[in-house]
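Field log, afternoon session.

UNIT: design team B
ACTIVITY: writing a sequence onto a fixed backbone
BACKBONE:
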């Protein structure tokens, strides 16, 4: 099987910051085809690719990871974001924790097992699971494992994500006569202030509190014009019992009737029952002693679950959640090996069960 450490290094050295995932997909396709996998590699946009690989007969477990990363400005890093070098126990570079180490562990473990398995590697997860949304043909699976960063802890789901664009209209005027216009900035700023200070977003006993973040605010074109249009974008993390529809209604009430609202992204929360018989049977192969946890971030499971027939979802990977998206991102080399071994045990148990 390929060495998961070396494969992680090769992936980190590829620049897949919001694009260029085709090179990573081609890198993975070669050893998978050599191991007997049937590989489908699609490039729906230039340089961007999804990869689906299938091996064995019978009902497969599906393992998934994304190939893109968030940006990394070298000026702010103490080392090359794409070096892939190892310093002690730390493999360094953008995507090392989120989540190229997890992708490498999946490939290394899958090649070493006779279990029926389906691998799904996607583009554009960081910008709203764009690649996963374009995958419409997958073999149904009872279990989906997402190798996102969990520091080798078992996570049974995550919050949903609802991204909204708010807009306000005003009336333009000369900057020296602002009394003749209606400044859209103030109208939208007041709405955003009400939303920001709202104290009563609900909480889930498993997933924690729903959150609302005002991530962008744009208005105006130059100082001597009263801006007649303003826009803000919101990131709302929903939880079981607090749906996207309920969240939208709450935002609309706080923003006021004159504020426009447009949905940019709507991903459901994932909530796997720890008492699910399959989960109870297989989680011990990953980690003998574990406590159910749920993540704040979203994953491609939000898009892939329906295509796979609503499987139980496990999130388990070598990266550390605290390292995701940070400057000077790293991943534990030992954790990559531990994840690979754990995934081999999981697939081995599935092969015996099947």
């Amino acid at each position: 099987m390929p060495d998961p450490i070396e494969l992680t290094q090769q992936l980190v050295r590829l620049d897949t910051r919001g694009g260029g995932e085709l090179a990573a997909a081609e890198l993975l396709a070669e050893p998978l085809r050599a191991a007997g996998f049937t590989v489908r590699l699609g490039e729906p946009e230039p340089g961007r690719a999804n990869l689906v690989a299938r091996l064995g007969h019978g009902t497969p477990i599906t393992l998934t990871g994304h190939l893109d990363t968030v940006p990394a400005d070298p000026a702010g890093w103490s080392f090359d974001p794409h070096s892939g070098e190892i310093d002690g126990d730390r493999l360094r570079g953008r995507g090392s924790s989120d989540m190229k180490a997890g992708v490498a562990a999946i490939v290394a473990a899958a090649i070493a097992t006779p279990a029926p398995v389906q691998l799904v590697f996607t583009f554009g997860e960081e910008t709203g699971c764009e690649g996963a949304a374009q995958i419409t043909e997958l073999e149904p699976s009872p279990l989906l494992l997402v190798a996102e960063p969990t520091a080798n802890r078992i996570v049974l789901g995550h919050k949903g994500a609802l991204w909204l664009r708010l807009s306000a209209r005003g009336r333009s005027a000369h900057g020296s006569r602002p009394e003749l216009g209606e400044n859209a900035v103030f109208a939208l700023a007041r709405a955003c202030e009400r939303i920001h200070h709202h104290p009563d977003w609900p909480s889930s006993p498993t997933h924690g509190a729903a959150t609302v973040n005002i991530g962008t605010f744009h208005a105006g074109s130059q100082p001597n014009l009263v801006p007649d249009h303003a826009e803000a974008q919101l990131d709302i993390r929903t939880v079981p019992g607090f749906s996207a529809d309920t969240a939208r209604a709450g935002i609309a009430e706080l923003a006021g009737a004159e504020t426009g609202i447009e949905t940019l992204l709507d991903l459901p929360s994932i909530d796997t029952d720890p008492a699910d018989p399959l989960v109870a049977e297989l989680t011990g192969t990953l980690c003998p002693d574990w406590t159910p946890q749920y993540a704040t971030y979203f994953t491609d499971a939000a898009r892939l679950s329906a295509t796979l027939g609503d499987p139980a979802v496990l999130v388990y990977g070598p990266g550390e959640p605290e390292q995701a998206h940070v400057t000077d991102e790293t991943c534990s080399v030992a954790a990559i090996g531990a994840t690979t071994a754990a995934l081999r045990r999981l697939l081995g148990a599935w092969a015996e069960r099947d």
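LOG NOTE: The mean pLDDT is 96.
NEXT ACTIVITY: expression trials, pending approval
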